[in-house]
Amino acid sequence: MSFTPRQAARRLSLLSLGCALAAVSLPALAQEAYPSKPIKLIVPFAAGGSTDLVARVIADGMRSTLGQSVVVDNKAGAGGMIGSEAVAQAAPDGYTIGMATVSTATINPSLYSRAAKLDGKLIPVANLVTMPSVYTVHPKMGANNFKDFLAKLRAEPGVYSAAVPGLGTLGHLMVASFNETLKTQMQIVPYRGAGPALNDALAGMVQVMPDQLPSVLPHVKAGKLLPVVLAGHERSPDMPEVPTFKELGYPELNELGISWFGMVAPAGTPPAMVAKLQEAALKAARLPEVVKRLKDMGAVPTQMEQSRFADQIAAERKRNKELLDRAGVKPE
């Protein structure tokens, strides 16, 4: 088929216009398509722990908002460092995100020199869930409430021991701060993880165990451990007779013992993607079925303005650095 010069020029013009429109629309289409494949959610701790359980509940809820699966990938080791580094080193394309906790975000940077190298390489997405901690005692200690517990500690300084999941952990800071604030002398016994610490607490080899509520609740219900005080926003419906530190007049101990679980992304992730991830994660945390599952594990969706998340991390990091220094814990 042949064309006149005028027809050829007209067809060339239309072709050029079509190419130009396609070039303009491609970025918009690409942006609208996100996410177009499953998203990896790295959990820096082993499967079955509190962080893993929270991550899986939130991941399930995000599917309905994003239209894509959020696949949990456990990368445990080095106190959460291996998983955190994996997130920091991932491509900032919105398809790799990670879980952050009080330990990974606000303790590890002062505890491990390699953690400090992650400064600026992870950006906060959302603070999703909070979880209370509870001080439990072995029944043989003979303390059925906080008043009796404190009286025994003061009457026999240095006699009773508290199990913590390692030096520099949140449990360690909680007991050290308890001793400092209430003028007691519990012996701090560090273990290699919460599991061995809990086993010895159940056996009565140590008398005190501060831990997140979901971990000790089954043993409390079985009568193997007795709860004496809670660090939480309010009393737990599972143990309504147990007061919070805040009620007892110790707000700093209360705040220190409340764990949170958040989401982070590699630095450089486009703001539009971060915003979409934040929206999806927050919606997931408030779905009725998710709220119920969180409640069953003693957790609740975080009630805070998300613009404060970065400031919260900075403030808690400063506080925990001071606590580590006072406890004599040196960075590795």
What can you see in these coordinates?
Residues about 20-30 have low confidence and may be disordered. Helix 2 (about 50-65) crosses helix 11 and helix 4 crosses helix 13. Helix 7 links the parallel strand 6 and strand 7 (about 185-190). The protein has helices spanning about 5-35, 50-65, 80-90, 100-110, 115, 145-155, 170-180, 195-205, 215-220, 250-255, 270-285, 290-295, 310-325; strands at about 40-45, 70-75, 95-100, 120-130, 135, 160-165, 185-190, 210, 225-230, 260-265, 300. The protein is an alpha/beta fold. The protein has two domains: about 40-130 and about 260-325, 3-Layer(aba) Sandwich (D-Maltodextrin-Binding Protein, domain 2), CATH 3.40.190; about 135-255, Periplasmic binding protein-like II (D-Maltodextrin-Binding Protein, domain 2, 3-Layer(aba) Sandwich), CATH 3.40.190.10. It has a six-stranded mixed beta sheet with strand order 2-1-3-10-4-11, with helices on both faces. Strands 8-5-9 form a three-stranded antiparallel beta sheet, sandwiched between helices. A two-stranded parallel ribbon has the order 6-7.
